[in-house]
Inverse folding.
């Protein structure tokens, strides 16, 4: 006859006790239950943004749970989409009044609903007919500091030809430090910027001496799809393997250089 030790009994009883504890936590303290089971981060999601839906709406699940979001960001529901957003926070300062703001009956897309979604000292304010990140009344007219300057390059070039434009999750001022409102195939979202333009320099290229107009000191001196490469000095040349896309309205996505 098998002898059941005290340890075995405890192991057998463990699943049942776990269920009892989980059930009691779920009933008595839902917030604590969520923290234990789903690892929910503290804070509240910003209110959902108003935006005008397209006829053929494409819903994006950019996250499923808070743990998939950076830092203190939370995975938030926004009109059928899920997107990482910083928890609600109100900054000091006063929103400016825009004389060309339309009446409240006329609405436009919101690009923020909480000050926490804005860089630096910017606040989320009603601008024209939608909410966007703007300098406070005290900071209006002052030159932008480093925290609000949109430097760096987008991971994808802003070249797209989509049959159905998908939702814009941002506009130029509404991304936090180190991020930029960038195209992502047929939508836009805040993405971490790159110090150099995406793509690579060709291994060899003919020297063209008849023009100095393509001389450069960095990728910032070059047009989209071009990089500053050390060829016959520093010259702007067509980059290779560029992550830029054209969409023909079907399920096929073509790279700029023609490859599928």
């Amino acid at each position: 006859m098998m002898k059941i030790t005290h340890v075995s009994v405890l192991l057998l009883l463990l699943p049942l006790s776990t269920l009892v504890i989980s059930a009691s936590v779920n009933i008595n303290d839902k917030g604590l239950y969520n923290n234990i089971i789903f690892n929910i981060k503290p804070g509240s999601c910003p209110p959902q943004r108003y935006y005008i839906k397209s006829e053929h709406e494409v819903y994006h699940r950019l996250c499923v749970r808070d743990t998939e979001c950076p830092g203190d960001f939370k995975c938030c529901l926004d009109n059928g989409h899920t997107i990482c957003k910083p928890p609600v926070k109100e900054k000091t300062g006063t929103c400016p009044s825009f004389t060309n703001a339309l009446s409240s009956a006329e609405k436009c897309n919101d690009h923020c609903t909480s000050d926490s979604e804005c860089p630096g000292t910017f606040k989320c304010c009603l601008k024209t007919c939608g909410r966007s990140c703007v300098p406070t009344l005290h900071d209006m007219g002052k030159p932008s500091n480093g925290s609000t300057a949109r430097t760096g390059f987008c991971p994808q070039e802003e070249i797209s030809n989509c049959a159905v434009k998908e939702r814009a999750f941002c506009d130029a001022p509404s991304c936090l430090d180190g991020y930029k409102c960038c195209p992502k195939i047929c939508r836009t979202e805040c993405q971490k910027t790159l110090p150099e333009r995406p793509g690579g320099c060709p291994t060899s290229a003919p020297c063209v001496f008849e023009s100095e107009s393509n001389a450069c000191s960095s990728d910032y001196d070059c047009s989209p799809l071009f990089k500053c490469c050390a060829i016959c000095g520093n010259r702007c040349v067509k980059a290779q393997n560029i992550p830029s896309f054209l969409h023909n309205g079907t399920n096929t996505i073509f790279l700029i250089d023609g490859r599928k």
